[in-house]
Amino acid sequence: MGTCLLCDTNESAGGYLCLACTKATVVRLECLPDLYDGLLPFLAPSAAVSQGRSGKGGPAPLPVRAEILDLRGPGGMVGVVEDHLSAVCQERSMRKRIPAGSIEARLTAAVSGLLANMPWIAVSWSEAGTFAAEIRDLTKSVRSIIAPEPAVDRGRRIGSCPAMDPSGTLCGAVLWLPPGAKALRCEWCDTRYPPYVWGQLKTWMTEDEKARSVA
Predict the structure, then answer these.
(1) I need a surface site. Which of 49, 106, 168, 195 has the fewest CB within 10 A?
(2) pLDDT (tens digit, 9 = 90+) per residue, 184-196?
(3) Rounded distance, CA 82 to CA 72, Å?
(4) Angle, to 10 degrees, between the axis of helix 19-38 and the axis of helix 103-124?
(5) In angstroms, rounded to a whole number, what is the distance separating the alpha carbons of residues 94 and 44?
(6) Residues 128, 100: contact at Cβ < 8 Å?
(7) DSSP letter at 57?
(8) At a CB cut-off of 8 Å and minimum separation 6, what does 17 contact?
(9) Distance between CA atoms of 166 and 123, rounded to whole angstroms?
(10) Residue 145 near residue 77, CB atoms below 8 Å
(11) Which residues contact 148 (CB under 8 A, 6 or more apart)?
(12) CB neighbours of 196 closer than 8 A, spacing ≥ 6?
């Protein structure tokens, strides 16, 4: 058994992709046509962008967002998928499909072609890891436009964790107090600092800062 070329963790059961990464790649491929459609409402610039010449005399803004136009154009999402399908067909000595129709139709056809070859890709294609990674990155890129993840409020930065491991090595990870939290916990070493030790915690952190400045 080998190691999955995408996650570098799970066993690939003799092929190139593990079962979990194969399933995830199938889902990502199936989502691509919907993601393509989902980009359309974001094609026009924000209404907040002024029309005409800029205040500094620069050129007027483009009537569309160029990065989204690129993703929806011939060399964007459909280009990535068609290139991979062409490589699969060449590797398997299959007749290559000639792209035809609208971008939407071409994307749907290319996705269908890759889905039909996924069992072979996962088991027999040495480029399966690169392929799966590019499909993952493509879907992630499009999702970041359609539904960007909200910024996470990590709370207030307290300082560096003063905990020591059994060998005497200082943890040093940044301690954060999340909103509404009643106790501190180091996300790295899992040491917990309840409120009654916060006074001593400040002393420990001050001593560590002095020691680092001397070193």
Answers:
(1) 168
(2) 888 888 899 999 8
(3) 13
(4) 170
(5) 40
(6) no
(7) S
(8) 4, 5, 6, 25, 121, 122, 128, 129, 132
(9) 45
(10) no
(11) none
(12) none
HSE-up of residue 165 (Cα within 13 Å, Cβ side): 10
The residue count for the chain: 215
What tens digit of pLDDT does each residue of 121-144 get?
Answer: 999 999 999 999 999 999 999 998
Angle at 121 between CA 117 and CA 127, to 5 degrees: 135
Q: Which two tokens stand for residue 180?
A: 């509404």
Structure tokens at 137: 């990155």
CB–CB of 139/28 below 8 Å?
yes
Q: pTM of the prediction? A: 0.63
Nearest to 134 by CA among 191, 77, 71: 77
Single-letter amino acid, residue 125: W
Write down the residue that tokens 């996705």 correspond to. Answer: 111
